[in-house]
Known about the structure:
It is a single chain. The chain is α+β, with helices and mostly antiparallel strands. The chain has two domains: 2-176, no CATH class; 189-401, no CATH class. The chain has helices at 13-43, 51-56, 58-64, 74-96, 213-216, 218-232, 241-275, 286-289, 310-323, 325-339, 383-401; strands at 2-10, 114-117, 124-127, 134-139, 143-148, 156-165, 168-176, 189-194, 198-202, 207-209, 278-282, 296-297, 305-306, 342-346, 371-373, 380-382. The strands form four sheets. It has a seven-stranded antiparallel β-sheet with strand order 2-6-7-1-5-4-3. Strands 10-9-8-11-14 form a five-stranded mixed β-sheet. The two termini are 20 Å apart.
Amino acid sequence: xxxxxxxLMRPTVGQQVALGEMLRDHCSLYNGAxxxxxxxxxxxxxxxxxxxxxxxxxxxxxxxxxxxxxxxxFSSQQATLRRLDKAFAAFFRRVRAGEKPGYPRFRGxxxxxxxxxxxxxxxxxxxxxxxxxxxxxxxxxxxHVRVHQHRALVGKVKTVSVxxxxxxxxxxxxxxxxxxxxxxxxxxxxxxxxxxxxxxxxSGGEFVPNPRxxxxxxxxxxxxxxxxxxxxxxxxxxxxxxHQRAVEEVATLHGKVRRQRLDHAHKTALRLVxxxxxxxxxxxxxxxxxxxxxxxxDPNTPGGFxxxxxxxxxxxxxxxxxxxxxxxxxxxxxxxxxxxxxxIAVDPRNTSRTCPECGHVAKENRPTQEKFHCASCGxxxxxDTVGALNVLRAGLVRRDANPx
Length: 404
């Protein structure tokens, strides 16, 4: 199996400058390749340029500009061109599917924050000594950079990436390692219901509170974004260091929220994986759930629109995104795979409207957001617990219908 590791780098001042130049030059390569594709599509009968053609031009590009392009790893530049090729492949896939296309865009220097090295030893070298935290990673054109290896790396390093987050630099490694031993069986199964009031309710009647990290940081974020907005009104060539500090303050606050959300997701998923052999959850279409409502044109007023609940839906969308369901489910599946646990996604329709006692399905069974009261048999419970019970039941049916 493949596992990713992310370690903080501690570059010197000179190495930080070199890393910044590496990002800048790869960004320039990306934008130049994108411009070539745009020009080819417009002026040569809509024929597009492929990755193979652009990769073949790298030798000439490096010879023409040895100061900016020739100093970096050839394979990392190929990886940047592959990234553009994947962006176009995703664009055409969305066009064929009738979705919003999202044509690949030019990247600003601050938007391009990652350089990939497809193979350890080709333009980079991971140098780790067992039981020694003075680890280093070598990059062509930069040198040996110190790394704070906060945990042991297991397996053979396959790929290496450099990532900038604010003023910090990270190295991201993927390592191939044998499948770990599964955790001992517990004999327990559980269904979970993800929500807003509570982050998670399980079929055993337990609840995990919603930490609402972004809402807690809302006041600081609002103040920082207002300060950034004031500086942002100044022309780009007139901006000062105060503008840069405002940008970094906003990025720092968002980064803290992101790390808190990840920490909560990891701890919650780890507890579930350790305690249960099977975990069933709703197969949520989070992107569809957090879409803005469709505008309603007013037939009596040309150019006018009727109320469509957009303000209330916006608050719900903020809460859904703050909860981080997608991140949590991704982490849960990854941890379950490593631990030999089974995770099953089930259809979420009517899970909170179906009575777990008599099976009666009705909208009236849920008179409030939290209360479930069956209109047929009188069964009462918390609505989220009822949803988790029905999710577990559906998960067990799917497991028995598809034995391993």
